[in-house]
Design a protein that fits this description.
- 4 copies of one chain form a homotetramer.
- The first copy, chain A, is α/β, with parallel strands linked by helices and about 350 residues long.
- Chain A has 2 domains: about 5-130, 3-Layer(aba) Sandwich (Rossmann fold), CATH 3.40.50; about 135-290 and about 325-350, 2-Layer Sandwich (Dihydrodipicolinate Reductase, domain 2).
- In chain A, about 35% of the residues lie in helices and about 25% in strands.
- Chain A has helices at about 15-25, 40-50, 60-65, 80-90, 105-120, 135-145, 170-175, 180, 185-195, 290-310, 320-335, and strands spanning about 5-10, 30-35, 55-60, 75, 95-100, 125-130, 150-160, 200-210, 225-230, 235-245, 250-255, 260-265, 275, 280-285, 340-345, 350.
- In chain A, the strands form 3 sheets. Chain A has an 8-stranded mixed beta sheet with strand order 12-11-7-10-9-8-15-16, with helices on one face.
- In chain A, helix 1 packs across helix 10.
- The longest helix of chain A is centred in the C-terminal third of the chain and has 22 residues, at about 290-310.
- The model of chain A has no long low-confidence stretch (mean pLDDT about 95).
- The interface of B and D includes residues 205, 244, 247, 257 and 261 of B.
- Strand 12 (about 260-265) of chain A pairs antiparallel with strand 13 of chain B, so a sheet runs across the interface.
């Protein structure tokens, strides 16, 4: 008898949802995609062609899908606004959950998912921060753990998307939570990873511009923003988010320690080709985060599957997902208000005058 | 009813055979590994643990395996000496064949496989040259096709392994066909790809040393060798093979055209991490060809599967596999004999005195 | 009759003073070093061996030196505290002035030098910002001028020194003006160059730590600091200064425009050597800013000389030197006070409550 | 009294001659350019403007120039055909000699210069191989000396010029000695440096094409050529020369040892700028060898000067210059004849049949 496969359902078949569904279908030998849900007819029509023939039952109702017999886990790639509700419902049906980030743009709602997960502690509930599954970040983390850079003290990290002139990002800004919640949340999660998830912000500043998408202003958002988070334990992280890159995706991180430095993706590249021509030497770089992190998403799929089947620990804590959104929200507040935020040693907001 | 999957058997479960078996088992959603064969008890014992539980029937007899009902294809990763015989037997059983390179170190035997394949022209028969499936090489090839470098004229390519002090390569040299047949065959295949598979050698030279493995001399082999092949159409390829690299696998290619140049893997790298320390900036590089080409092997597995199921063309001709070994053998002859070889415009050997 | 050479005196023969003296002596074919001054006996003793034999008259009194007949220019490389006074005295003697940065750590004193220079408008008075004379920065600037990156909008720049465990930097902090005045002033000057020297800060934030030199705290200084300057014209610059680098000098700049990006020294390197070894591939990087900018200092020497002899314009305005120190001081204030600073559209400080 | 300066005369004011003259005039603080010669009126006219005003006496007759009183050294940058004669005449006038490479394209004539130099052993006589003065090559050599790569065993080196469609190289081929004598001579000199100048060739092969300059064939020359030299001590060097590069000068060297590898200029670059744009990331590379080696030529000028003044040893032996041309000529013979050359253990030519 072959080893049991994890029976997984996919909720949401949009840009990311589709990718999760296909990863569970094709790239996860220990998983079996058995169901998929979308409220969107065109997404369902795609699924009829691409999932149904492989034994995937389709639903236009999330509740019905999670009631499917034998189901063990659900991967949630729907709109952010329903992530939390769907995650909680899944737990109530005794299903493991892999949820796209963020759990919510509201801290309160994020916390409700964590509370639910604590109640169902036998379930694996993970919010997918793809960089945690990237070989290069992992190698950098191991080197940090080995003490190669001494005490990590400064972290610089950026999430920079290729400029998309279509206006997509303006519409998206209406509900994304803002550039620090939507983009820098990855860099903040890296900070929690490399600095330790017990770090407590001491002060936060942020500044931004709308250089190519002036309409972002109506949603209090920016297309380029820089923020600094100083922590109480003598560490500083600083972030740059941009939606204006000409060449492609530039997600770069530096971890600077007292005895060395590690960079990840300091020189973005599409592949190992260099083209020498009359104008010099050119290499291409990935157009999107998918081009950069495709393999990390596959790792995520397989490691989540293994954790569910084998009862092994997940490589990241659900509470981090809340903390990352929380710090992102503070940065966004600092950005929009033009005020520096301050916190005491147990993380409570204080007014500077009080200091 | 889900789409049909290709039922595949794996012959040979040594270093490469294992990898092929696992790729068909886990990385090829449209294939199903149903059988595996090895004459080696310890390999079979591995298979009992790692393949049998997933529905793979095990054999210690190749002929019995290929007689398994419903089988559609076989991947051959046994010792080189039996590649050809097994490939031909498989065709006679009406099976598609993916065979590890080389078909044989004997040109005559190589040709017998091509002849058999012509007789069974409805079957897909491929000798796996993994670089043909590598994204970077493919990108370079497309750029060449687009005319970005003008007319490709000079090709430099090297296959350089990390130094292995275990003595493995000395034993291996007894039957590998020599460094140009075993290693440079990949670089020669790239030459046929980028220059066109109709190129005809005009003259061939080679020189080598045994710098770290003096015992190779007893098999007329070398641990470092450089060879040049000049073609009749005004193109030159030159190759470097080494088993002495300190840092890891260094398989690098340059294609130099009349208007530009493309390099593939000019700067080998393990991943996207750079480590800054008191001695400078260091990046690691892959220890083995598997570290460099793992994804290419997965692509190969999937594209072979698709070609068998859909009847689409394979991306490389079987006859190239013969031609690459033939040129490799000439280089080896030039290397061992210390003589330059010459050929007329239809590829017949000539003595220089005749010129 | 050979063309006239510029007769130059060197004030200060410490670390930088020595280098300026030697550059005028040996690397500036159109200049002639005729005098040198130091109040320090050991520096004078060095000068007796290294300058006097080449016709350089030595002084232990600055006023006497600048009274030397025929003198045309002075290069000032003394302690920062006397830069301004010496520069003004030199102008009063009708001498051109090349002064090491900064003119002063006090804005008022800086301005007094500018006022003096305006009175002596026939004299060339320059505060040496070496990066303005670096080929790579110049190339990046030209590319920016050509419109290659659209409208420059974000500038990231860092001045990062190799960690010096000797304690030198602690003593130095007593009078350096702090990390943003001493180090980031170069990055701020680059900002004025690439963004235009008419930019007006809108808000400023900064955060820092003392990771390896805790004694810096007694001078209100930091060994790692990050600051952001948002300008009124929709541009943002952010800076990182560190005295903790393990590998060497890492002065890196990115200029990000609406249509492209330019990096300068994104991959620091000592030279063109890469060393492949069992641990990977390593390159060294310069240990000091001198290793990085030696040629820029030579260019500075020669261009200052040419401007004096030929009456051609200097490549940077003296007023920038004041503005750079001013912004540096604001960053330092923001760093030390933990407050965000705000400015109105004509650059006057405002309290946030007023907004 | 200031230290004495070396009084130098420059012979030849063409492309290279001009540069040598200006280096001695402006970049060599311990030298004084006192005379210059050219048979060419337009070169003399240039010298009237650029050298004469600085105290340089001009000549249209070499013999008269070297008779100038007080002269101590001559730098020879005339046509190759007169290098040797001028060098010998200079020695007879008791002058130190820095001669552009090669001494001659004839081995016999080269040797006559060495013989003359032996007779005047108190004189410094150097044939300028600029790479010996390049910081990167020197660093690589020191690392080799320190044993970082074990025993150097394979050397790959290339001299590749940017394609010049003007036809200059065709005319130049009439007297250059061919691509291996003109270009690879630098790479051969590097070989003598890194392998030791006592290496003796065992066998030599070469192949070439005329891809962009078919007219080169009338001078038996090639625009792309690859050659291999196998030495008797178990080392192999291989060379690539090209006049077809699209991007600029690509002079790259790898020294591969039994325990490591050093690369010099594996990634050619104009400066430290990278340009990110919609097509990727681009860096420029130097258009000419001068762009790559300008500083090496300055070092050469100053070290030759110091050796003459201080009686210190030159960093390279004159006999190497002969040996490099000799090996270059063998490569050229192998290239043109289509024959592999063989040598016995004391370097005498042998026919393969004899082996």
């Amino acid at each position: 008898m072959p080893p049991q496969k994890l029976k997984v359902a996919a909720a949401g078949l949009g840009r990311m949802g589709k990718r999760h569904a296909l990863n569970f279908l094709n790239k996860a030998p220990r998983a079996e995609l058995v169901a998929a849900f979308s409220p969107d007819p065109s997404e369902l029509s795609w699924a009829k062609q691409n999932l149904e023939p492989y034994g995937v039952t389709l639903y236009d109702d999330y509740d019905k899908m999670i009631a499917q017999e034998g189901l063990q886990a659900v991967v949630i790639g729907t709109a952010t606004s329903v992530h939390a509700e769907e995650a909680i419902k899944a737990m109530e049906k005794n299903l493991h959950v892999l949820c796209e980030k963020p759990l919510s743009t509201s801290i309160e709602i994020c916390k409700s998912v964590v509370t639910a997960a604590k109640k169902h502690s036998h379930l694996k509930v993970m919010c997918g921060f793809s960089r945690r599954f990237d070989d290069s970040y992992r190698d950098a983390f191991e080197k940090t753990q080995q003490g190669l850079i001494g005490r990590p003290s400064i972290l610089r990290s950026q999430t920079c998307d290729k400029h998309d002139p279509s206006g997509f990002f303006v519409a998206y800004a209406a509900w994304s939570g803002g550039v620090f919640v939507d983009m820098a949340v990855h860099d903040i999660d890296l900070t929690l990873w490399f600095f330790g998830d017990d770090v407590i912000p001491k002060s936060i500043s942020a500044h931004g511009i709308t250089a190519v998408q002036p309409d972002l202003k109506k949603y209090n958002d920016y297309d380029n923003a820089v923020g600094i988070v100083e922590f109480h334990n003598g560490k500083v992280a600083y972030y740059y988010c941009s939606r204006m890159m000409a060449a492609g995706q530039e997600d770069t991180t530096e971890v600077i320690g007292t005895e060395g430095k590690l960079t990840v993706n300091g020189n973005p590249q599409q592949n190992l080709v260099n083209y020498y021509h009359a104008g010099g030497v050119t290499r291409e770089i990935p157009a999107t985060y998918w081009g950069r992190f495709e393999q990390a998403f596959i790792n995520e799929t397989n490691e989540f599957t293994a954790a569910c089947l084998d009862g092994t620990p997940l490589p990241l804590k659900l509470s981090n997902a809340v903390k990352a959104v929380e710090i992102g929200s503070f940065l966004q507040e600092a950005l929009v208000s033009g005020k520096q935020l301050h916190f005491d040693e147990i993380g409570r907001r204080i007014e500077k005058a009080q200091l």
